Amino acid sequence: MGVQALVQRPLGRTHLTVTRLGLGLAALGRPAYITLGREEDLGDDRGVAAMRARTWAVLDAAWARGVRYFDTARSYGRAEEFLAGWLRERGIAPGAATTGSKWGYAYVGGWRMDAEHHEVKELSAERLRRQLDQTRELLGEHLSLYQIHSATVESGVLEDEGVLGRLRALRAEGVAIGLSTTGPRQADTIARAVEIGTFDTVQSTWNLLERSAGGALSRAHGAGMGVIVKEGVANGRLTARAAPAPLAAAARDRGVTPDALALAAVLARPWAGVVLSGAVSVEQLHSNLGAAEVGWDADLDERLAGLAEDPETYWAGRGALAWA
């Protein structure tokens, strides 16, 4: 892995230090998710014990490679529980790694593949209070960053003084506060968060297909916020199993995997503080982390510029992905 990905550095204006590549647990903590190819990646055994063992194996591999940022959420099934158990079992002291979690969605899938609904969103002060207690019960002093999950301007959460006041109090207790964004109006949400000035970090989707938040993320970075980038391989659409032809060809020419090249594109953005891998196997993780060895340049920027989609088209396609 490249030296720059291993070096721990401050995340925006926070007291937190991170490596530029992190691990997100959205696809590891629950049996069903919207990543392409889960049948091939996970097989039929999606029991709790099997998913815990898989999560711990990926966490062990990430730690061995120098990854020191781990991202989870209340809605990621048992991801907080798996992460907390791993931190305890491996004897990792609070502060040795930076751990971010999120509140706002509740996991309601009942560990079933065929659940009618897998998560339900509610961005209320009461849910913040309840889920923060649950997160702290599991992660304790390991909780470094707490984020609103999928904030939007239209939800009203960014104007809710009950929420903002509790988050400010949490920050006074030593936990950084942030928000994640979603949907075709990510840029509007980021701009409002910058204007409010309350948040330490923002986590957003940016990849070769969905680039619309780039300008807003640059401005957030300029305002001192730490930027975390999720879905860098577009839920599997930018991996070997589904890569658009131009990406696949460019990866072959550079002698790397499509996912590594896609993540290298994100690492090349000067505003990107942490870029998340969403790997569900050790092999996928190693492939993702290959991004740190890829030299991104203007030729690749030009060659792959045509992959960008209209945001409405991108998010409609993401919303149509099946839970599997």
Automatic annotation (TrEMBL):
What sequence ranges are listed for the domain NADP-dependent oxidoreductase?
Answer: 55-295
* CDD domains for this protein: AKR_unchar
Per its UniProt entry, which superkingdom is the organism in? Bacteria
The protein, known as: Aldo/keto reductase
Identify the species of origin: Streptosporangium roseum (strain ATCC 12428 / DSM 43021 / JCM 3005 / KCTC 9067 / NCIMB 10171 / NRRL 2505 / NI 9100)
